[in-house]
Each structure stands twice: as C-alpha cells, then as structure tokens.
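Ticket #4471: structure export looks truncated?
Reporter: QA, pipeline team
Priority: medium

Steps to reproduce: submit the single chain below to the structure queue and open the exported record.
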Amino acid sequence: MKVAVTGGTGFVGQRVVEKLEKRGDEIILFTRSPEKAMKVFPKNNFSHVTAVAYTPKESGEWQNAVSGCDGVVNLAGESLSEGRWTENRKREIIASREVGTQKLVEAIDKAESKPSVLVNASAIGYYGTSETATFDESSPPGNDFLAEVCKRWEGAAEKVKNTGVRLAILRFGIVLGNGGAIAKLIPPFKLYAGGPIGSGKQWFSWVHREDVVNLILHSLDNPDMAGVYNATAPHPVRMQQFCDTLGRVMNRPSWLPVPGFVIETLLGDGAVVVLEGQEVLPKATQKSGFEFQYSHVKDAITSIVKS
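Actual output as written to the record:
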C-alpha cells in the first residue's frame, strides 16, 4: 500500500509512519521541512519513506504526489496545548485544520489516480464539555470553540466524498504514550508532588497511542470503515481516578491538586482541555470490529510508565 501522511512527525504521526514502514508500505510524508523530517526518519531505518515539501494552507506542486496513493492519513494541525489561545492563535488553530484539509481534498480531487480512502483526524472536543452527559458518535456537536474547530475540520474533510473517496473521521481523546499529556504529569509525581488537575471531577476520555495508531491502520485497510469513529478507550475515568491510578503505578502519592487558576494562567482558554471534560464512548468503533489493546487506564499507564 502507498500512503500519504500529513502530521507524520507528530506524537501520533511518528508511530503511524513507524508501523507503516514495518509492514512494508510506501509512505509519502508531507512536511514543511523535509530535512528535519528525514532526521526523524533516517533512510537506513526508513527506506520506504519519501519526504515531500508542502505548504498546508496553499495549493502547489506537492498536491501532485497524492496521485497514485492508495490512502491518505491527515493528522496535521497546530498544537492545542502549547501557549495561550489568543485571538490570533485561535485563527491559526482553525486554519491549520480547516484550510489544510481543504487543500488536501483539493489534491485528491485533482489526482488522476485517486486514493481509495482519507483517514482524517478530529477530536472529542466536537461534543463540548459536561460532567453529567455521555457522548458517542451519534451525539450532536457542542457550541464552544473546540466544537467549532472540529466542525469546520470535519466539514472540510466531508467534501472528499464528492470525489468518490471513502472517508473515516477519527475523533481523538487524550492520547497517552511515551510523551504527550502524560509526560507533563509524570515529573511532579516523581517529586511526590502529583495530584489531580482542577476539581478532579471532570471526565478524562483517554486512549493509548498504540490503539489510536492501530485504529488508523484499521481504517485504512477496512473498506467498511466509513463515517465517524471515536478514538477513545471504552472506559473513560474522572481526573481524580486517573491521577490516583498514575500515583499507584508509580508508587507515589496523589495528594497535591493543581488549582484550576494555575492552569488558566498558563493556558488561558486552552485550559478547557484539562479543566473540563466529557465522557465519550467508542460505540461505532467497537461495532466496526476494532479491538482495543488497552481498555482500562491502569493497563495503559502501566505499559507507559514501565516501558
């Protein structure tokens, strides 16, 4: 299989490329810096990777590389967790997803030999936040900023169906792995200063990175995967339970809560990602036949901390 990937040097994307390489697929890596990308994926270990310079928010010659691909995986987008959400940053967060996806769909539409599938990332921010509601793939969107980002992101991807290409949208939960969200929580626990963020009552809909990556490959390979699928483990937890479990696995106490105002000072509006939450279930994902390797948070944390 020949697969084009955007966001391939990111936390999830790197593992996607690694697994595609391992199974012998040809990978076209769309990146703004091919030189940096090839340092991440050196030729002696990644002989099937070709880096193509692209401008995610502009049309260009890079779009020609989509022709002949069997599938496209779109993971690109500005980070939500780095820096305050100023108005300029909000615009950049939206444009990096909406316009970037539009240009990718444009490339698919122009391709003489079209891919059969676009696997497009989204996020559970689509549903808005709640301490009491439970969401699945059939739930309506929320009305906050993150919900707007996801609606516009998914709306841009939906246009690919006009080209006859199958579309699978994966709404990511908080991705756990060696890096990402959990990497920021481990150091305080090592110093015996760990604890829940905010009230601890907010839902934490998580997913192990290996399961996200396996779901992406499942979506590429399975022609029945069309529509929206939640990339979240079947057993979400409250923040308090997550941090208590992390403390037990690390043999450390979980006793020092991080007040919400501290996170708000650091992240501004971005604090909603960790201070508020939603209970999200992967009903359509499980119905598709996908099996999670890590369904329970203790197993996921143990695999990460002990690795």
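Status: closed, not a bug. The export was complete when the record was re-opened. Leaving a note from the reviewer for reference: The chain has a mean pLDDT of 94.
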